[in-house]
Write a structure and sequence with these properties.
It is built from seven helices and nine strands, in the order αααββαββαββββαβα. The protein is an alpha+beta fold.
Length: about 190
């Protein structure tokens, strides 16, 4: 569990984390009872000690090799994980919002840019497994990406992301506009 905790603390963007609340087993039991589900220990641990987290932009989930052949993606940026705190990433709100869009054996646990979701299986063959749901994909749009929440988290890798630094910005200005701005800056 120590390796798992260390990885979570590496990928969570604590600079934007506004919530410093720990939850107890009763909170998890209430969630499970309300939705008639049993959450795996690794995900329960996450909900109790973290939750409602944004992920650092330079950490992406690297899927298993076979998956990228089907969907042509070799990495996934995860925006935020849901949690128990009552904000825009509240897991109960997300479960209720997506209940008619997702299969009954999945609940959403995180979102990706553009509206796709990371989900966890809650019944039979899907139990405790992690899936990605692609909302705009026709036909098969749910893919298994990990056998557990812990292995999902452990497959986040640091990716060299070119940030918005002044050295990376190229402006294409017309000669007339460039002359105007140069002249205005001298005044």
């Amino acid at each position: 569990m120590e390796q798992f905790k260390k990885k979570l603390e590496t990928i969570i963007d604590f600079d934007v984390k506004e919530i410093d609340t720990s939850w107890n087993e009763n909170h998890i039991n209430n969630l499970e009872g309300k939705y008639n589900i049993k959450l795996p220990q690794d995900y329960s641990y996450y909900l109790q000690h973290y939750g409602n987290d944004y992920i650092k932009e330079d950490y992406h989930f690297i899927p298993p090799e076979g998956l990228s052949d089907k969907i042509k993606l070799t990495q996934f940026e995860v925006d935020s994980f849901y949690g128990l705190y009552n904000d825009e990433n509240n897991i109960e709100d997300k479960i209720n919002f997506y209940k008619d869009l997702l299969p009954a054996d999945l609940i959403p646990i995180a979102d990706l840019p553009g509206g796709d979701l990371v989900c966890i299986g809650i019944q039979d063959n899907t139990q405790n497994k992690i899936y990605i749901w692609f909302h705009e994909m026709d036909g098969e749009n749910i893919y298994l990406v990990s056998d557990s929440f812990k292995s999902f988290i452990m497959n986040f890798k640091r990716i060299n992301v070119e940030g918005n630094k002044i050295e990376n910005v190229n402006l294409n200005l017309s000669n007339k506009l460039n002359a105007f701005l140069t002249n205005a800056s001298k005044k």
